[in-house]
Amino acid sequence: MYAFEIDRPTTLADAVKALGAEESQALGGGQTLIPALKARLAAPARLVALSGVDEIKGICTADDGALCIGGGTSHADVAKGAGAYPALASLAANIGDPAVRNRGTIGGSLANNDPSACYPAAVLASGATVVTTNRQIAADDFFDGMFATALEDGEIITEVRFPVPEKASYQKFDQPASRFALVGVFVAKYPDGVRVAVTGASEDGVFRWSEAEAALSSDFSAGAVEGLSLSGDGMISDLHGSGEYRAHLVGVMTRRAVAAAG
Amino acid sequence: MPEVSMTVNGKPAKGQIEGRTLLVEFIRDNLGLTGTHVGCDTSQCGACVVHVDGRAVKACTIFAAEAEGAEVKTIEGMAEPDGTMHPIQAAFQDHHGLQCGFCTPGMVMSAAALLAENPTPTEAEIRDYLEGNICRCTGYHNIVKAIMAASGQDVSRVAAE
Q: Considering CB atoms only, which of B62, B68, B133 is closest to A30?
């Protein structure tokens, strides 16, 4: 690792102030950023560790029924505390391994927007709202391609608000070495329609499969998406699987998610 | 150079660190507690698992500065002061849960975290919990058996000897 200074503020206000300095970068749980620093893929002058900021941790239910999760909440705490949204709790319980889940945070995962991460699929499929230190960002406006988001420099994710669906399931085809999704599909059924978000597949990062959403909104059954398929063009192709293979898996995992959601 | 202070195995510990000093480096190099191993240094293998405020974490993937004020427990903190092994350590010995022993500190710390959460895990739950702990010797069977035994469960039907 290149040398850097590290700040560990205990309030959000101090964290925002520290991030205002030149070449500062926020550190969430560090489960992605620390390995990246070791590989010298990033060279910030100063890291601002958010792990001491208790006011962005925790889970609660809003007056409108939405499940609100603080940006600094660990995957382990979401797995235990998001019982009101079982598909989301289950997603969190299957990220990485137990030690990683004790450190990694929802805000960190979303800000990083790894094209194979699990949380982006949940946020996009739920039409969640990402609340930051500056504003509220709708899920459809938040993700901006591989490792890119609408976040500006120094902006911290303080909370994510998930409308709780009638039915939902996340099905992840594990890449067993990294424990990321080779392909993951989150299906969520709301009174006004079904949303389907796919992670791990596209070179543009997480995306909504609108054709499947339309089919499932009129008939919420695995059979409704039986004949649908995606092209392998623009899909991630690497030693773990070709673009065509991933495109095929999207269909398989979508059907499994619908079946599991009931 | 900033200073960090924490409690390690019940004793106060402090030292000078750099921003980039990892918790595992602080534990091994500053405190001389070399029971915590660095296997991969990429958060894959779990040999460096310690407890920070009661939770299992990979000590190679947390900065020492982030453990400021924390209660840290390492493998050295598991046995009794008179040297009597912790029940999990004793079970690893009884059931041959180690061969070369390199992964063992992380395995024991992960096992302790599991049993604190789930005192009588099934074989499948143990295998699932050890997803982030890699052993290249044992094939895991005797590790799983040792953890089941440490939880007070019958192990006669578990995996192979």
A: B62
pLDDT band, very low/low/confident/very high, at A177 (cuts 50, 70, 90): confident
Domain end marker among B46, B77, B108:
B77
Residue contact B56–A3, C-beta within 8 A: no
Q: How far is B96 from chain A (nearest CA, A)?
A: 24
Instruction: Report the pLDDT value the prediction gives residue A88, as an integer from 0 to 100.
Output: 98
Partner-chain contact A4 B132, CB within 8 Å: no
Residue B160 lies in a domain: no
- Same domain for B64 and B11? yes
| Contact at CB, A98 and B114, closer than 8 angstroms | yes
When the candidates are 3.30.1490.270, 2.170.150.20, 3.30.390.50, 3.90.1150.10, the CATH number that belongs to A167-261 is 3.30.390.50
Per-residue pLDDT of B17-64, as tens digits, reads 999 999 999 999 999 999 999 999 999 999 999 999 999 999 999 999
Q: Is residue B155 part of a domain?
A: no
Average pLDDT over residues B90-99: 96
Who contacts B29 (Cβ-Cβ below 8 Å, separation ≥6)? Answer: none
Statement to judge: residues B21 and B46 lie in one domain: yes
Closest CA of chain B from A185, distance in Å: 22
How many CA atoms within 13 Å lie on the side-chain side of B111?
A: 30
* pLDDT classification of B161: cutoffs 50, 70, 90: very low
Name the CATH architecture for the domain at A5-162: 2-Layer Sandwich (3.30)
- The answer to whether residue A135 neighbours chain B at the CB level (below 8 Å) is no
Of B84, B139, B79, B140, the residue nearest B109 (C-alpha) = B79
Answer whether residue A81 shows pLDDT above 90.
Answer: yes
- CA–CA distances in Å: residue A25 to residues A4, A17, A150, B21: 10, 12, 16, 17
ipTM: 0.95
CATH code of the domain in which B35 resides = 3.10.20.30
Nearest CB to B132 within list A4, A34, A96:
A96
Look-up: residue for tokens 């063992």?
A: B104
Domain edges within chain A: 5-162, 167-261
Let me know the angle formed at the C-alpha of B52 by B58 and B139, rounded to the nearest 5 degrees.
Answer: 40
